[in-house]
Amino acid sequence: MKFDDLQLIEPLLRAVHAEGYDEPSPIQEQAIPHLLAGRDLLGCAQTGTGKTAAFALPILQRLMATKKTNPAHLRALVLAPTRELASQIGESFRVYGKFTNLVTVTIFGGVNQYPQIDQLRRGADILVATPGRLIDLMGQGYAKLNQLEVLVLDEADRMLDMGFIKPVKHIIAALPSRRQTMLFSATMPSEIESLAASILNDPIEVVVTPAATTVDAIAQTV
């Protein structure tokens, strides 16, 4: 299968081809058609399987298909456990959406919040965030999520390990119940399975393992 076969709109295909991609990875091939159809998704996938494009491209296409009604309200939210991952995801959205008019903002803790607030004030369609900083800005009234259309939880098991599940549940409680939701996790401990069951509606399940790699030669001495 080629990316051209996935029913993506021209601006997204142009961006994908500009990055040198021709064939989708297994998770992209399996997930993108269902996400374009509006289905919820539960993905068991590790970093390196291509999952960011698997959810970013359908989100961009969905948002391009409808007009934003209020510039101050965010339409898609991606929650990530670390600032490094949030930055990578935000950059991916900007790369894949460079031929669209959609705006992505990335926020995380450990840095001054005011540049991030200024970005949100100027208006954004997609927000990539770590849970702690998002709760801070929600409490201050800068992150308006009551018209959100899409939610992604990425690396949910790492959020569990880092103690973010309670903040994540707090964020989800503030979102519209009618939305498309995706949850990705490398493992599925019982608490993540319970969270998935509570937020996903009749989800498609996609399980992908990373491509096998050859182990480097090992020198042993006695």
Strand-helix topology:
Layout: H1 10-18, H2 26-36, E1 41-44, H3 51-65, E2 76-79, H4 83-96, E3 104-107, H5 114-122, E4 126-129, H6 131-139, E5 150-153, H7 156-161, H8 165-173, E6 180-185, H9 190-199, E7 204-207
Parallel strand pairs: 1-6, 1-7, 2-4, 2-5, 3-4, 5-6
C-alpha geometry: globular
Overall mean pLDDT: 92
Question: What's the end-to-end separation, in Å?
Answer: 50 Å
Cα radius of gyration in angstroms: 18 Å
Report the portion of residues in β strands.
Answer: 5-15%
Strands, total number: 7
Strand order of the largest sheet: 3-4-2-5-6-1-7
Helix content: 40-55%
DSSP summary: helix tally:
9
Low-pLDDT stretches: 211-216
* Largest β sheet strand count, sense and barrel closure: 7 strands, parallel
- The ordered H/E elements are HHEHEHEHEHEHHEHE
What structural class should be given to the helix and strand makeup?
Answer: alpha/beta
Structure commentary:
The protein is of the alpha/beta class and 222 residues long. It is 41% helix and 14% strand. It has a 7-stranded parallel sheet, sandwiched between helices. β3, α5 and β4 form a beta-alpha-beta unit. α3 packs across α4 and α6 packs parallel to α8. The protein is globular.
